[in-house]
Amino acid sequence: MTTALLVNAIDLHYGAAQALKSVSLECKPNRITAVLGRNGVGKSSTLRAITGVNQISAGEIILNGEVLRKSPPYKRARMGLGYVPQGREIFPLLTVRENLETGYAGLKRADRNIPAYIFELFPVLKSMLGRRGGDLSGGQQQQLAIGRALVTRPKVLVLDEPTEGIQPSIIKDIGRALQFLRDEKGMTILLVEQFLDFCREIADDIYVMDRGEVQHAGPASDLDLPDVRRHLMV
Ligand SMILES: Nc1ncnc2c1ncn2[C@@H]1O[C@H](COP(=O)(O)OP(=O)(O)OP(=O)(O)O)[C@@H](O)[C@H]1O
């Protein structure tokens, strides 16, 4: 099995503070990889390094065989990297349709449309196309943020805490959507999570981070190992 996304011994600094210490991850195609850890251990920093929002100070990131070097986020999006940031970052004054259409920026003219399957996954988006993003509930905004990332036609989809602050029924919808994207669309999915039950249900592989480092890598069934639980206890 080849690797869709390879993170190889990356360091990341904020000024003098080192947030990531030689972090390595491997995301295999058609699998859901989850990165777990308590607040502040470096999960979001890892995703921001992958998407190019923050620059790494050592190591390398390889997407579908290509080393990313210092390429900015929009170039990585064009290379097939979709990103659903923490807090969703919906444009509150744009309509749902306009929010989805912001995903057109990196696409060829012929591809500038909203794939119909997005509305099958998240019917609420279709019924609210004319509503402003800011009027949607948190769960609806999360679905919109995922939909917007899907408009960019990603091969690798990266999500930062997709269940954060969201009601259980919508968490289930999001879980089903991610499994559909893996199983039917052949996507590689990397997500950061604190919600263990969600990971237990949908993840194939897990990484556990603590204090800027990867402490454990293995199949999702490792979630119940005492050593893994120790790193996740608050
Ligand atoms: N822009 C920034 N400037 C300075 N320090 C930062 C910045 N962003 C994050 N940090 C620090 O880097 C470390 C890792 O933060 P990061 O947000 O990656 O953790 P996290 O595991 O995603 O936590 P959370 O779940 O709270 O988002 C923390 O100590 C945090 O305070």
What are the defining features of this structure?
234 residues; alpha/beta; Rossmann fold; four-stranded antiparallel sheet; 9 helices; 10 strands; 32% helix; binds adenosine-5'-triphosphate
Describe this structure in words.
This protein has a domain of 158 residues: 3-Layer(aba) Sandwich (Rossmann fold). The chain has nine helices and ten strands. It has a six-stranded mixed β-sheet, sandwiched between helices. The protein has a four-stranded antiparallel β-sheet with strand order 2-1-4-5, covered by helices on one side. The model has no long low-confidence stretch (mean pLDDT 93). The termini are far apart. The site of adenosine-5'-triphosphate has 11 residues, from strand 2 and helix 1. This is Amino acid/amide ABC transporter ATP-binding protein 2, HAAT family (TC 3.A.1.4.-). Keywords: Amino-acid transport, ATP-binding, Nucleotide-binding, Transport.
Briefly characterize the structure.
It comes from Devosia limi DSM 17137. The protein has 9 helices and 10 strands.
